[in-house]
Amino acid sequence: MKTISTIQEFRKWRKGITGSIGFVPTMGALHAGHLSLVEESIATCQNTIVSIYLNPAQFAPGEDLNRYPKTIDADIKKLSSFQVDCVFLPNDSEMYPKEFSTQIQENFLSRVLEGNSRPGFFTGVTTIVAKLFNIIEPTHVFFGEKDAQQLRIVEKIISDLNYPIEVISCSIIREKNGLAMSSRNEYLNNEERIIAAIIQQALQEGKNLIISGERNSKIIRDKIIHTISSEKLLRIDYVSVADSKTLIEISDKIEGDILVSVAVYLGEIRLIDNFSYSVSSRR
Ligand code: AMP
């Protein structure tokens, strides 16, 4: 497994690569969720490249950039037990030289949910993703449903900007208690992990309502809010029942493909989770 930290060296190495190239962008502190994307890439593509870059542009001042877990040696060790061909590990001056002054901004899907709560977040994401696509030149990219809105926005910029790249979405990997795996779970102590698992339980209750035939989005939303609110230490940012493609909030009857998503604070820690559901096909 090659580790490369400059764009110039990467491009030199990339010239010698033939066949399909799967790319898994990450911010490090790798866990089983990230590794499932890596496995999917290895199963799908002839070559697999993983990037580890903690992108400062997607953190607002006051967010957890400085606190974000950095476990680079352990990350490389984890990746070296898979058939990963190259790990790209650029530093900040490589990705954002002093004179850097360009942004990529998606202007529809980025306005709601995470984008509403974290202004500028998706511009940071789409800018780094576009840069990485231009450097890596993958044929396939692997993104997790854990960050469902991000996945849809990446699909949108790939389409809008005509990148010849196929997006593969990968299911959410969870802890035993149902909590969606996240690098930010490192911030949680054991007691908080138990509390955080209520988020998934609430989503599951919402899903069960839909399975049992409920179609009123308000009733589904209220059920999820009620369960999360039963734990005093959890503070809801949003609970959304939206169209899965447009992310437009559904105010009455759910139909077609929907995305039910939540963002919840446990103290200072922001946790997100979701599920997708195809209403018509599973009646
Ligand atoms: P991050 O390092 O948080 O930027 O995540 C890198 C990629 O891993 C993104 O495509 C995430 O959606 C994906 N990912 C993170 N957590 C999970 C998880 N629990 N299950 C599946 N994919 C995940």
Structure explained in plain terms:
The chain is of the alpha/beta class and 283 residues long. 36% of the residues lie in helices and 20% in strands. It has a six-stranded parallel beta sheet with strand order 1-4-3-2-5-6, with helices on both faces. The protein has a three-stranded antiparallel beta sheet with strand order 7-8-9, with helices on one face. Helix 6 (121-136) crosses helix 7 and helix 8 runs antiparallel to helix 9. The structure holds adenosine monophosphate (AMP). The site of adenosine monophosphate has 17 residues, from helix 2 and strand 5.
What's a quick, concise take on this entry?
This protein has 283 residues and is α/β, with parallel strands linked by helices. The protein has 9 helices and 9 strands.
Describe how the helices and strands are arranged.
Blueprint: E1 2-4, H1 7-15, E2 21-26, H2 32-44, E3 47-52, H3 72-80, E4 86-88, H4 92-95, H5 114-117, H6 121-136, E5 140-144, H7 148-160, E6 166-170, H8 190-211, H9 217-229, E7 234-243, E8 257-266, E9 269-278
Parallel strand pairs: 1-4, 2-3, 2-5, 3-4, 5-6
Antiparallel strand pairs: 7-8, 8-9
Helix pairs in contact: 6-7, 8-9
The structure holds adenosine monophosphate.
Adenosine monophosphate (AMP) binds next to helix 2 and strand 5.
